[in-house]
Design brief:
Layout (H helix, E strand, L loop, with lengths): L28 H51 L6 E5 L5 E5 L3 E2 L21 E8 L6 E14 L10 E10 L6 E8 L3
Antiparallel strand pairs: 1-2, 3-5, 4-5, 5-6, 6-7
């Protein structure tokens, strides 16, 4: 039966286990420090990307909600045959808002076809502070409040003629710092 003898190599300065003739055997402290720095930088970069993704997801959630609110107002305006009545829309807390459809409404920045001016005071029947809760009930936890405003312009021929079209501009903005979303649509009323 063969026997194995273990040899210990003693290198310079008394190191054990490293062949003094092979400079690449094992890791040096410098190599370990460089690897630790590279891993730390990579980990911090990944952490930064995760934080940015969470922020982007939150912004997208609010943008989607603002778009949904503008579309809801447009549907209400269109369903009441613009210029001839009002509609109602309620938020998660049960507040009922009147949706006026007569020409006029929220101030625009540069006249018909431009964006809603949130610096101007909000008109009564062309404005709502829509509150979103989770779950969507009066007892739900408040998530956000959105300032929704709209403006109706008659762009077709005068009333009483076959062409009676309206440009509806609806904008929504989250309370606090938020960029508004403006949606414009042309709707018509049969005469």
């Amino acid at each position: 039966m063969p026997t194995f003898a273990m040899e210990r190599t003693v290198g310079r300065a008394g190191t054990i286990g490293r062949d003094p003739g092979n400079a690449s055997a094992g890791f040096a402290l410098t190599e370990l420090l460089i690897a630790a720095v590279v891993m730390t930088v990579g980990g911090l970069g990944a952490y930064g990307i995760i934080i940015m993704a969470i922020g982007s997801n939150t912004r997208n959630l609010h943008d989607s909600t603002m778009t949904m609110l503008t579309n809801a107002v447009i549907e209400q305006v269109n369903s009441t045959l613009v210029g001839s009545g009002t509609a109602a829309l309620s938020d998660c807390q049960g507040t009922i808002f009147t949706i006026a459809t007569a020409p006029g409404g929220a101030a625009l920045q540069n006249g018909p076809g431009s964006d809603v001016d949130f610096a101007a005071s909000a008109p009564d029947e062309y404005h709502m502070d829509y509150t979103v809760t989770s779950p969507c009930a009066a007892s739900g936890k408040k998530q956000a409040t959105y300032d929704v405003r709209w403006h109706v312009d008659q762009i077709g021929a005068a009333s009483g003629t076959p062409s009676n079209s309206f440009l509806v501009t609806v904008a929504a903005k989250r309370r606090g710092f938020s960029l508004p979303i403006n949606v414009r649509v042309v709707v018509g009323r049969p005469e």
